[in-house]
Each structure stands twice: as C-alpha cells, then as structure tokens.
Write a structure and sequence with these properties.
22 strands; BirA Bifunctional Protein, domain 2; RNA-binding; 14 helices; eight-stranded mixed beta sheet; 27% helix; 25% strand; 571 residues
RNA sequence: GGACCUGUGGUGCAGCUCGGAGUGCACGCCGCCCUGUCAAGGCGGAGGUCGCGGGUUCAAAUCCCGUCAGGUCCGCCA
C-alpha cells in the first residue's frame, strides 16, 4: 500500500516516485492552485504539494503518490527532518475522511487530561505519546534480551489465582462454574515464581502484569507491569548483578548512555542521611544528627531523644508564610514542630536563637557546611520520626523535576525484617513473610525482633522506588520461627500458604528474586512525572477508564450466571 | 475515609478578591481571498446550561452550602 515512511524520505531519493500513507497533520492553503499538506505517520511528517482543489482536511487518512523533489531555494525548513524535500505532482487518495478532532494534536495548546483520556485513541496519535510508548517498547525488548542473555527463561503465570489475604487488596473475579467462589488477580506472581524454583526453572523472568486494588497515585495504577525474576542457587549479590545488567541495558537503550555501576547503602544509612528508604541522590542536602550537642540543652523544644537538622541552601529567603507552611507540613507528618535558623551575616536569625548557648549556636551554624543565605531546619523527636519528617521536607524542597538531572540509581539493602506491631500485637513483615533474615541476626528473631535485618533490597532511582526483592526462606525451621514471630499459627500458615510450604517439602533450592516497575522506569526515562504518560490506556485516580466507561454494570444474565446480587448501598 | 487545587464556546486561558447585559485573548472550525507556506497570511462568520443542584441578592461565572468530575497528596500500597 505504501513504499516507505514519511520521515524516511531524503534528498537521495530526488526524482523517484513514492507512495506514503498517513494522516493529514496540517493543511496550508495558498489559493486555487496551491496547498501544502503535512502528512504524518509514525515516523514523522513530510510535505506534499497539491492543487488547491484537493479536498482533504486535518486528520483525513490519505495515500499520496508523488515525486520526491528538492524544495525551491529559500523554502527549506531546517526545523523539519524532511525539510529539504517535498512530494510534488501528487495523487491524493482519501482512505478515510475525518471529523475535526475534539482537540488539536499538534501540542500547540495543553489539553485537559480528562479530554485526553476520553479520546485516548487520538491522544496516542500525538508525537509525545508515540515517543513514550515506543520508548517503553524499546525498554521491554532490551529487558527481555538482557534476561535471555543471562540465561533466564520466560515463563507465564496465571492471572486467575487463589486468594491470599495478605498484603495489598486483591481484585476479585467471581467463578461461573463455582458460584460463590472466587479467583483473584495476582498482586504479583510471588508465589508462582517461588514454585518455579521448586520446579527446577532456576532462572525465571517475566514481564508481568500485577494488579492491586489500592488507591491510585501519580506513580500507581491498579494494574502495572514489572520485570519479575527469580533465581536458584544464588546470593543476594548475584540478584543485584542480574537486575543491574538489565536495568543498565535498558537505560542505555533509552538514553544512549550507560550509567556506571549502581552504588548501594543500607536501609539504616538511607534513613539516617536522607530520612527515607528511597533517597533522591541527585542533590546533596544530607541530614545531620545534632543529638549529642543538644543532649543537655536548656531549649525545651529540643529536649528529645534525637535532634536532626537539614540545611536548605538559599533558604534564608523563605518568607514567614513559607516557613509556617513547612511547619504545618512537619506537624502533619507527626512532628511536634519545626525549628528554623536563618544563617545571616549577623549570625543566626530565629525565634529560638536567644535560647541557644554558645556551643549550640556554633553547631547550628555549621550544619552541613551552612553558608550565609541558607536556612537550617531542625526536628527534635524520636529518631525515626525526626529522620522521616526532615526526609520529606528534603524531598519537597530539593527534588528537581523528573525530567532534570542525572539518573542516580542506588541499592538500599538490609531492610528491617519487621516493622511495627499490628492491632493484635503481632509483628508485621516489612517485606513479606518468606524473606530470609540476615544470617548475623537469626538469634534476634525471638529476643529482639525489631533489630533483625532481612536480606531484602530495593532499587531506587531519583527518589522513586523502582522495585524490591529478597532472598527467600527455603528452610522450614527458619520459616516456622518467622511465622511464629508474626503470630501466624501452623494452621493459619497451612491455610494461607499450604501449597507453597507443602511444595518446599519436596526439595526447595535456596532462591532469591526481584521485581521492578517498568512503568516507573520508563516514566523517568521519558522525563514524565506521571506513569499515565507511559501507559496506553490508564485509569483516572478514581479508577475510571474515561474511554470505555469502565467500571460498568453487567447484564442480568451475567449476574445470574455468577449468582451475584448487588446489596443496597450502606447495607 | 481525609486535605488541597481545578471546572468559562471544540481546545487552552483571562474574567471571580471588590456581584451589575456571556465580556476578552490565543488556537481550532466554517466561508471567501491568496502560487512557496511550514505557529502561513488577510477578510468575514458560526459556536456558551460559566460542571450540576440549592441558597443569599433587585441582580450571581463571581458570594455561601451541597454535589459530580479531573488532578496532587495523606491514609492505603505484605
């Protein structure tokens, strides 16, 4: 139907007759005998010179046959890849007429996302969406190649799985053949892939769709895509190397530059220095611990187990209302307040300045090599809270836009095994209950469980958590000690994970794995703040698909088959 | 479940504080003119439930209450 793509036409083809197909991106009218058409296909646009009587308008689908010609002198368009040539003596065949689209596809105006999503099929015709989705395809292809090259075998796992009421809320699928019983859509192929290890697929991967019925965010959709992998007879370091190879290959494919090796820090270091387990390393602003200097302070606001400080470069110019707003933010995160100290020519400017003794003043003024014009923010509280509050402020005040700055990858290792206590007084697993504790901490499971580190690790890029993984427990004795710590009885464990634990009795190899979000990775590669920009058909924050209208009612027949009745609201 | 922001011809915005005729800008659309444009240009034109409902008022896009939709965030996401 066509010979080549619009943007592939160049000077070397001058004189030849070619046929292209595409959409009319723009028509420029010059009277009865001359009009210019920009014809667009997936490659770009080429200009066709046609008679003014040719009746095609924006977004008509056309097939144009014309002679490749150099443009007359002085009419070359340097801003266009094909700006030196045009198609002349054109025959225009209208393959499909088109109504004017509900919004312009030329990026001249911003478009409300509501409108874009309602007409997503038009939105993805736009150059930016074409670029983003093709970037995503290139990343997928690279990831597959990298995993294949490392000896991994792609295995598909079921979308219809058994309910495992643990972790994220699952999407439920009613069974027609077994009315009253349900499948769930997997929040991840976690158990399936561990069973693959028992099954002897010692290097598994999959580009897997995962589904979680939790509230949506800029970086979270109901359904998202992960590069999921698992391997047997490997250490944590092996897994990190497999993943790094795939991610760095993808980065190279996406950006043209292969990043250096991925550094790492422990979870405890990340919390201490950055106040978060997903630090954005594109900028410095490291938290400082002033607890020692304020151990015996007279300043009431600072009489707390921990005093943490954050220097904000240039922050001395913050207005009082800006500081009030930061204080409110700190309070909403659980802090009792936020102390601030402007570093000025004349010393420290702060409501608290007159309460500080000489040594304390000196310490404040030296935080993170503070300079005149900076501001130092302090939170005094329990250690973890102080870190997290300042970590959040650090991100809010320091993080550049997604599209800016280098790509700074970092491994976060040695996550705690347990975090907090649930309503029933049981410890909660920080990762999941099959995570192997750190070998040095096995003795602490029963004595000091909150100190137990795990062999769980995250990959973080520019403040985004890309993914996480762990070495799994393959020994029944350790598993039962973890279940015990979590308050999961033998019966309960059997009920929830019986088929996994049962399978492990038949020879479970030591294994470990990882999964990372491709949506997030591609969004960062594309410089997008929102993963919807790299997903063809995303849902809104309230879980609606504005194009299809989903979710929707089903027919009475469908309900009858499934024996489903909708209860009245509030019942 | 909660907080905040947004909603005005097809699209993007201004108008809203301080109520006074649907007023304006850019793009698009339709018609006419135009033989070298490429953000083409010129002339003319059509196009509105100011998200929806209620209230205050002589009078509401504008003030108040409620509600819906979209967004950002908190909770949630083992």
């Amino acid at each position: 139907m066509r010979d080549l793509l619009c943007a592939s036409i160049d000077r070397s083809m001058t004189g030849s007759v070619v046929t292209v197909c595409g959409w009319v991106a723009k028509r420029r009218e010059h009277g009865e005998h001359l009009a210019f058409l920009d014809v667009r296909d997936r490659s770009g646009i080429v200009q066709a010179v046609v008679d003014g009587s040719v009746d095609v308008r924006s977004e008509y689908v056309v097939r144009i046959t014309g002679t490749v010609s150099g443009r007359p002198e002085g009419t070359v368009n340097d801003r266009l890849a094909t700006g030196a040539i045009e198609l002349s003596d054109c025959t225009v065949e209208i393959l499909a007429a088109a109504e004017p689209p509900p919004f312009q596809l030329d990026d001249r105006n911003d478009i409300d996302e509501q409108v874009r999503l309602r007409y997503r099929f038009l939105d993805i015709r736009r150059e930016k969406m074409q670029r983003n989705l093709r970037l995503r395809a290139a990343v997928n292809a690279t990831l597959r190649r990298a995993m294949d090259a490392q000896g991994f075998c792609e295995v598909e796992t079921p979308l219809l799985w058994a309910p495992t009421p643990e972790g994220a809320r699952e999407f439920v699928v009613p069974s027609r053949l077994h009315p009253g019983e349900f499948y769930v859509l997997p929040q991840s192929p976690q158990i399936a892939k561990q069973l693959l290890m028992v099954g002897g697929f010692d290097r598994y991967y999959q580009i897997a769709r995962c589904l979680r019925d939790e509230d949506l965010r800029a970086d979270r959709q109901f359904e998202f895509t992960q590069l999921d992998l698992e391997a047997s007879f490997v250490t944590q370091d092996d897994i990190l190397a497999f993943v790094a190879e795939a991610v760095l290959d993808a980065a190279e494919a996406a950006t043209g530059v292969r990043p250096g090796t991925i550094g790492s820090m422990t979870w405890a270091e990340a919390l201490d220095l950055y106040g978060t387990d997903k630090p954005d390393l594109r900028f410095a602003m490291v938290l400082q611990d002033l607890s020692a200097a304020f151990a015996n302070t007279e300043v009431k606001a600072f009489s707390a187990p921990t005093v943490k400080a954050l220097r904000v470069p240039g922050g001395a110019s913050f207005s009082r209302s800006k500081l009030d707003q930061l204080t409110e933010q700190a309070k909403s995160l659980g802090a009792k307040g936020l102390a601030w100290f402007r570093i000025t020519e004349d010393g420290i400017d702060s409501p608290l300045a007159r309460f500080l003794n000489e040594e304390e003043t000196r310490v404040i003024a030296r935080v993170d090599d503070a300079q005149v014009g900076d501001i130092v923010l302090c939170v005094a509280d329990e250690y973890t809270l102080a870190c997290k509050v300042l970590g959040t402020l650090r991100g809010a005040l320091g993080s550049p836009p997604v599209s800016e700055g280098p790509h700074h990858y970092v491994w976060i290792t040695e996550f705690p095994m347990f975090e907090g206590i649930d309503e029933d007084g049981h410890l909660m697993a920080a990762h999941h209950p099959f995570t192997m504790p750190h070998p040095d901490d096995l003795d602490l499971i029963e004595t000091d469980p909150l100190k137990v580190r795990s062999q769980a690790y995250d990959l973080v890029l520019n403040g985004w958590e890309l993914g996480s993984g762990s070495v799994r427990i393959h020994r029944a004795d350790i598993q039962s000690r973890i279940f015990k710590a979590l308050g999961i009885s033998d019966e309960e464990a059997d009920n929830r994970f019986g088929f996994l634990l049962g399978a492990f009795k038949y020879g479970a190899p030591p294994h470990a794995g990882f999964a990372f979000g491709i949506d997030r990775l591609v969004a960062i590669f594309a410089g997008e703040e929102n993963i919807r920009e790299v997903i063809a058909y995303p849902k809104t924050q309230s879980g609606n698909d504005l194009m299809t209208g989903a979710p929707k009612d089903i027919t009475d027949r469908q309900k009858r088959d499934l024996r489903i009745k909708i209860a009245a609201k509030g019942s």
